[in-house]
Amino acid sequence: MYLNPALIESLGLAGMRYLGATLLVLSPDAEFLAEAAQRAVHEQRLLRLRNCLLGMHAGHQFRADVSLGPVSAGVLLEVHALASVEETAPDLRLSASLRGLAHEVKNPLAGVRGAAQLLARHLSGNAELAKLAEIIIAEADRLTGLADRLLRADGATNLAPINIHEVIERVRTLVLAEADQTVRIERDYDPSLPSVQADSDRLLQLLLNLVRNALQANAQVIRLRTRIDYGTPLATHAARLALRVDVIDDGDGVPDDLQPTLFQPLVSGRVEGTGLGLSLAQEIAHEHGGVITCYSHAGHTVFTLTLPLGEPHG
């Protein structure tokens, strides 16, 4: 229906008849794009495809990330050309800063853990408070493990078969312990889901970031939903079978001007925000061969984590 001038130039379509044409004018993977567009409309959510080949003519082909979102007239397709090595250099500096931060937080974490252990010894008669002390100890251990991983050169994930619902339940417990009592967290689980090969601590970190984002957006109802997907676009390919986790909230939503860069480092819609949570969450998803997408407007936001099932990934 419409292409903006920048995309027309990039694809080498100037002077050609492209209005009313099929998606073949955009990509040799037109069938894949069409399927993703149909899913975006049917499911009313944003789909993001990574590392797509665009352009049908020599000299005008390039790799880009493509997002497809439902709009009133059909589907809005956005193209984000992949960054060059020079453009990604700030991310390398960011990683070095994170390693420095990891080194500095380990000693305070040890102090927090020790204090929680002392509290736990004096709370044996109060089951509710003792449980909160156990949560503090477990979280201190988890954060120490994450710091150790950042300090290691490889930073490899520890993959093992896990029950995704156990991870989500732990997220729910942690968030309810810190959230306002008026916030409601609902479950909508598919009990038939198989185990997924994943690092449970890394997925916990990812999902905590997504749910805490909902809290910071003033959500009062957060729904945690799990489903199986088929033929789902992931970071680099379409998975025959995938696990989907949706974090759905009724908060303020993501501002339109932030949505194209939402998962980039140092991008935040809050004055006090660091802009690291979502970029780290996306990095964790990619470590597992998966991807996070977002569809948002005021009063209804869906962050979707999709992970491959039964496929090797690194």
From TrEMBL:
Gene Ontology MF term list: ATP binding; phosphorelay sensor kinase activity
CDD domains per the UniProt record, alphabetical: HisKA (cd00082)
Record InterPro entries: HATPase_C_sf (IPR036890), HATPase_dom (IPR003594), His_kinase_dom (IPR005467), HisK_dim/P_dom (IPR003661), HisK_dim/P_sf (IPR036097), Sig_transdc_His_kin-like_C (IPR004358)
Documented EC number(s): 2.7.13.3
Span of domain Histidine kinase: 100-311
Keyword line: ATP-binding, Kinase, Nucleotide-binding, Phosphoprotein, Transferase, Two-component regulatory system
SMART domains xrefs: HATPase_c, HisKA
The reaction(s) this protein catalyses: ATP + protein L-histidine = ADP + protein N-phospho-L-histidine
Keyword Transmembrane: no
UniProt-listed PANTHER family: SENSOR HISTIDINE KINASE, SENSORY HISTIDINE KINASE_PHOSPHATASE NTRB
Protein name (database record): histidine kinase
